[in-house]
Each structure stands twice: as structure tokens, then as C-alpha cells.
């Protein structure tokens, strides 16, 4: 590297090289994770105003053989960059549909919905609609149990195409939520054109809703907007009763957050619900 001129030295920068190697390792490890079924779907309950569990958001975890439980913040961005998010996202869809089908025959769970996070790259695959419908029919899941969480970032590209896909899936009974609403490139023009069922208030607005009047104003505005457009609204990241009460006073009807439960494995989700339902 010593002989390299100023212009080329970056190529041999040991730090860059280490980062490239790490990334390549992570890509390879993600491939192995899929093959060896190291991914796990955690569920976080979604709660109605009368404190009933109406469904869950599916959140992926990676149970690594030596590194333990790896959170999505550590691998989703790289998976998006290298394209692995597509097969990983399909695994999430299929696992959620399998769960919906298993629950269909259990009265306590038959009406539960599962919300799945879909990344922009996955949504923009030419066969995305087909992949969703395949996952539903392969497992015999009812489409009305499946909710897809989209983000504003997928509207940067071709909005008309996004709308066509959403309408096609909606026609089959699949519902849509706008995740992290208000944190991205939101445009109210898109909002009225997208066939959405739910707006999710991002946890960044919920966290300080009691102490920051700007956050409160935004949260209240989102609730009012959803209500007057005939959409449901779910507040995320609700950690205290006071936050919930504030949001309820302003017309919010559904919640998700550590106040009720952290995301947990399916068996724990089912067990805690069974406890919940005991007289
Ligand atoms: P998100 O979709 O906004 O999910 C909500 C995140 O907030 C989750 O983090 C959840 O565990 C966390 N959370 C829930 N309640 C509370 C609370 O009361 N307080 C606080 N501080 N946090 C709370 P998680 O599971 O680490 O997921 C992070 C992000 O990774 C997700 O944000 C989503 O963007 C992405 N992600 C997770 N699973 C998937 C997936 O299957 N596919 C894709 N494409 N992305 C996923
Ligand atoms: Ca989400
Ligand atoms: Ca969110
Ligand atoms: Ca988020």
C-alpha cells in the first residue's frame, strides 16, 4: 500500500477494507440464516381502546448460533442493500400466513390480524402481488387477517404503480397501514389516493407527547386526520398509561408498545393471551 499514490490509497485503506469484508460476511451469513432457518418472527400485540388484543405486528429476529439474538436494526439495512431483503421478506410473509392459518381454527385467535413490515425493495419486485397471494393460498390463510405495513419511502418511486398493487391486494382482502407516518417524505396528496386502512403514529411523536407540545400537536393532528378520513390510527411505542390516556382523549383508538408487551415469540404471545382471557 505504501507504493500507492494518493488517489488510489483509499482502495487499500485498511478500515474500508475491513468494512467491505464485514459487509460481505454479513451478506453470506444472511444467506446461511435463511437456509438454516435462523430467523424467528416475534409478535407484538396491538390493543384496542377497550384493552382487547386485536392482532399483532410481526417483527423479525435473527437467532444466530453464536452471536445470540440479533435485532433487525443490525441487519435489515444491509439486507435491503444487497437484495437479501426480498427472500427474507418472503420468509416473513409466509411465516405470518402460516400462523394466521394455524390460528383460524382457534376461537381466541381466529380474528387476530398480523401486520407484516414490507421494505420498498420488496414491494417494488415485479411479482410482489403474486408473492403475497401465493403465501396466503399456500398456507390457506384468510387475506383479511393480513395487514401490510408500508412506509413513505416506497412512494419516492412510482406512486401510480404502488397504488395499482395496493388496490389489487385490497381487492383480495389484504389491508394496509402507513408505518412511521409523518417521519418520511409524506405528502397529503398521496394520502388521499392510497387505499390505506391505518395510519401508525411513529413512536418519535409518542415518546414525548406529554412534555413536548410540538410532538403532541403532531400526534393529535395525525389522529384527527385519520379519524376524519375514515382511517384507523395506531399509536406505536406507548410506554405509559398517561401517554395512552392523552392519545385516547384526542381520539386514538388503538395502541402498541411496551406498556402492554414487548415483541415476544409466538408461543409467549399465545400463552400471555390465554392468561389474559382467563376469568
Ligand atoms: P417498526 O416497524 O417501526 O417497528 C417498531 C419498533 O419499535 C420495533 O423495533 C419494536 O420492538 C419497537 N417498539 C415497540 N414498542 C415499543 C415501545 O414501547 N418503546 C420502544 N422504545 N420501542 C418499541 P424492532 O423490532 O427492533 O424493529 C425495528 C425496525 O426494523 C422496525 O421498525 C422495522 O422498520 C424493521 N423491521 C422489523 N421486522 C421487519 C421485517 O420483517 N421486515 C422489514 N422489512 N423490516 C422489519
Ligand atoms: Ca412497522
Ligand atoms: Ca413503526
Ligand atoms: Ca420505525
UniProtKB/TrEMBL annotation:
Question: Which classification does the entry list for the species?
Answer: Bacteria, Pseudomonadati, Pseudomonadota, Betaproteobacteria, Burkholderiales
Which keywords does the record carry? Cell membrane, Membrane, Transmembrane, Transmembrane helix
What organism does this protein naturally occur in? Rhodoferax mekongensis
Q: Would you tell me the protein name for this molecule?
A: EAL domain-containing protein
Where it sits in the cell: the answer is: Cell membrane
Residue ranges constituting the EAL domain according to the UniProt record: 23-277
